[in-house]
Amino acid sequence: MCFSATASFGASAALTGIGIFAARKVTEPQQRAFAAIPIIFAVQQFVEGFVWLSLTQASWAEWFRLSTFIFLFFAEVLWPMWVPFAMLLLEKEQRTRRVLRIAFVLGFIFGMHTLYYLLLNTYDVRIADHHVLYKLNFPLTFVVFTWIAYGMGTVMPAFLSSVPKMWIFGLPMALSFLVTLVFYPSYVISVWCFFAALMSVFVVVQLAISRKEKGAEASG
Question: Which domain does 35 fall in, by range?
């Protein structure tokens, strides 16, 4: 998270609770990947807690490289693939499934491309203005399209989905992404991951709505 190790570990604990609650709302196997979003964010925030510790306490310095790589893997590689994958599993309309399948393939290509650069390039990570600043030394031609591709992969699938009221999940994610780009342009990786983690509470809301609608259909 963008404030302290304590805040990151606290957010991780809260998200773990939300994730357990989300898992209990699952009514069919196709919902499991979507319901796992809060738990994945919990792990990611937990790892960033160690990034904070490695940057602020000499006794934790040896954990810097590993914790930073794992956090960036979650933030930059996993999410562009996981979100369209989760949406694809939920989708029943064939036309929308084809579009989401394309989104997943693009997210996979983007994620693997990013992983390639993470493995081969150095990156500068430090604390600045009470935030963790991740400066990735990626080629400029890749950076130019990064945030557009990233936003399309992690936010757009929720609006493509034909699942009723999925916008309840997608809209807060999109707004938080835009707010981060406007107000925290130098700290997007850390700050938006924090906002997105908080927004994952809407996973529970969406699952609860789906469960209620299925109950109404069964009783009808």
Answer: 5-219
